[in-house]
Design goal:
By secondary structure, the protein is α+β, with helices and mostly antiparallel strands. It has four domains: 2-155, Schlafen, AAA domain (Methyltransferase, Cobalt-precorrin-4 Transmethylase, Domain 2, 2-Layer Sandwich); 159-235, no CATH class; 238-403, Heat Shock Protein 90 (2-Layer Sandwich); 409-483, Orthogonal Bundle (Arc Repressor Mutant, subunit A). It has helices spanning 2-15, 36-47, 71-87, 143-151, 169-175, 178-184, 193-202, 218-224, 262-276, 296-308, 355-363, 373-383, 413-431, 436-443, 450-462; strands spanning 26-29, 53-57, 59-60, 65-66, 89-90, 95-102, 105-112, 121-122, 131-134, 137-140, 206-208, 214-216, 240-244, 253-257, 279-284, 287-292, 320-323, 327-333, 390-393, 397-403, 466-468, 481-483. Helix 10 runs antiparallel to helix 12, helix 12 crosses helix 13 and helix 14 (436-443) packs across helix 15.
Length: 486
């Protein structure tokens, strides 16, 4: 706030020097023009300018002498300009304002912020009705200048778009469960509502409109909404959790609705899913305890993955968790991004369609660091002796399946080869490669079954999934194997 004020005061001092002159960064006026179209031209021009620009009111136009402005006049100017910034130009433009003392009189400073999305043009007209500052005046932009503005434009992401109408402070606080997010960040909850709203703006959950209210962003809703059903455009993005009685969808099923924002409802969802899963009895320290047949870290990573990487442009569907007798399927709308291969998802740095959501989930400690989620899930799956993860793409979705425990004899040959490949990736990054002994351990097999594992290794090589680390080595006993791409 202090930074833009000091800049504006400096520009005004320069403009009203010994020889008063107009500059691109600032325009001073005595009163507000009655012509809305002219005002919209100025708003467009300053919003298209790097760093934005300033309007100063209370200066005699003819003599370039500061005369001052009353509070009532200032309030009327701010009210009218704020309305034009919302309704007179496209996209919406943000402004800030302040009354500052300059040469002994009070002047109204309006800061028109640079728009990330360019060109800012007159509302209900084409982008050719865009304006720029040139030679200290406002003029219509040429086609070449409009092209340059477009090259320097940043299209807003889905998370940054508005999910609500303009709301007041109480409505925002009522709709968002901000305290849970602060707890996830291990930060105290402010006592002052203004401080809470400032933090929500910094967190990109809301967008303030010059004291007139706030829009809740899609990210704010997806992360912290108390009830997604309160937001029409996002109600279908709630997580669907379905439990089937058997191994297919023909048997009975029950759906459990979850209408909370992803971040605030994540821990409760994990615990609820765990409660629906089959358990196994283990003996620990002479006491029998019940544990899930699925590792919790894998559940966390796979659930967070379908939330973060879904394609929000696909309407009418959202992330889904389906629990069957022998497996769990995690599905999200949207195929993999074109740069990603289905067999290179483990340990590669992922691209996310929704970087604000992905970054927030990491800061909230909901998911692991970038690129390590699938790796940690597979390490846990190997420790639990489960079959390999199965990755699938359908026409408009991506699905990961985690299976319940199976003995080696019950696993298909295709699954064995995939397990061998996934094991090779984990061991490649951990120990430089895997051998017969480590793969036996992965399947829970004893030394006498080494021949079966050797056969599997050879089949995986023939399938093009792995290769010997040292092709010239003649010793099979101590041979190491790595992924085909290593």
């Amino acid at each position: 706030m202090k930074n833009w004020k000091s800049k504006a005061l400096g520009y005004l001092e320069s403009s009203l020097g010994k020889v008063p002159h107009e500059i691109n960064e600032l325009d001073w006026k005595e009163y507000l023009s009655p012509k809305n179209d002219k005002l919209c031209h100025h708003i467009s021009a300053f919003a298209n300018m790097p760093g934005g620009g300033y309007l100063v009111f209370g200066i005699d136009d003819k003599h370039a002498i500061p005369k001052g402005i009353s509070k009532t006049e200032a309030n009327g100017i701010v009210e009218r300009l704020a309305s034009l910034c919302r309704d007179g130009v496209d996209p919406l433009v943000s402004i800030d304002h302040s009354i500052e003392t300059f040469r002994g009189v009070e002047l109204l400073f309006i800061y028109i912020k640079e728009s990330a999305v360019k060109p800012v043009h007159i509302n209900n007209k084409t982008i050719e009705d865009s304006y720029i500052r040139s030679g200290g005046t406002t003029r219509k932009a040429s086609r070449q200048e409009i092209g340059s503005l477009m090259l320097n434009s940043k299209n807003p992401s889905f998370e940054e778009l508005h999910a609500s109408k303009l709301l007041n402070e109480i409505e925002v606080i009522t709709l968002l469960e901000y305290d849970t997010i602060l707890n996830l960040l291990k930060r105290p909850v402010p006592n002052d509502i203004k401080e809470i709203l400032r933090w929500l703006e910094e967190e990109k959950m809301i967008v303030g409109v010059d004291g007139k209210g706030y829009y809740i962003t899609n990210f704010g809703v997806l992360a912290a909404a108390k009830d997604l059903n309160k937001f029409d455009g996002l109600s279908r993005k709630a997580i669907r959790l379905i439990k089937y009685e058997g191994k297919n969808k023909a048997a009975g099923s029950k759906e459990y609705p979850d209408n909370k924002g992803y971040a605030i409802g994540f821990e409760g969802l994990i615990q609820f899913v765990k409660g629906l899963l089959p358990g196994s009895e283990v003996i620990k320290h002479v006491l029998r305890t019940e544990t899930s047949v699925y590792p919790e870290i894998a559940l966390r990573e796979l659930i967070s993955n379908i939330l973060i990487h879904q394609d929000f442009t696909i309407r009418g569907t959202g992330p889904m968790i389906e629990i069957f007798e022998d497996r769990i399927e995690f599905t999200n709308p949207g195929r993999l991004l074109p740069s990603k291969k289905i067999d290179r998802l483990i340990r590669t740095t992922p691209e996310s369609r929704n970087e604000i959501l992905a970054s927030a989930f990491r800061r909230y400690n909901i998911c692991e660091e970038r690129g390590s989620g699938f790796e940690k899930a597979i390490i846990a799956i190997e420790l639990y002796g489960l079959p390999p993860l199965k990755f699938e793409e359908t026409e408009n979705s991506f699905k990961v399946t985690m299976y319940s425990p199976k003995k080696f004899a019950a696993i298909t040959n295709e699954e064995r080869i995939e397990a061998c490949y996934q094991h090779s990736i984990i061991q490649y990054y951990g120990n430089g490669g895997f051998n017969n002994a480590s793969l036996r351990k992965r399947f829970g097999m004893h030394d006498k079954q080494a021949a079966q594992i050797s056969k599997l290794i050879n089949e995986s090589i023939e399938a093009g999934k792995i290769k010997p680390k040292d092709i010239g080595s003649e010793s099979k006993k101590f041979s190491l194997y790595v992924p085909y791409w290593a």
